[in-house]
Amino acid sequence: MKDRTCIAGVGTTAYGKRGEFYDVNPIDQVREALDLALAESGLDRRAIDGFATYSVEKLDPSVLAPALGIPNVNYSSMVHGGGGGGTCGAVANAAAAIIAGQAEVVMVYKVITQPPHARFGAAYGSAQVAADPASDFHRPFGLISPAQFFSLLFRRHMHRYGTTPLHLAEVAVSTRANATRNPKALKREPLTVEQHQRARMIADPFRLFDCCQETDGGAVILVTSAERARDLKQRPVYIMAGAMGGDTLWGQGLTSQNQPEELYVSAGHAHLARRLYAQAGISPQDVDVALLYDHFTGMVILQLEDYGFCARGEGGDFVASGAIRWPHGRLPVNTHGGNLSEVYLLGMTHVIEGVRQLRGEASSQVTDAEIALVTAGPSNLPTSSLLLRR
Amino acid sequence: MAVLALLAAVCPDANTRPFWDACRKRELRVQRCADCGRFRQPPAPGCAACGSKLFEWPLLSGLGTVFSYTVVHHAAVPPLAAEIPYNVVVVELDGAPGARLISNLLDCAPEEITIGMRVEVAWDEVGDDLILPRFRRATERG
Question: I need a surface site. Which of A141, A246, A333, B98 has the fewest CB within 10 A?
Answer without folding.
Answer: B98
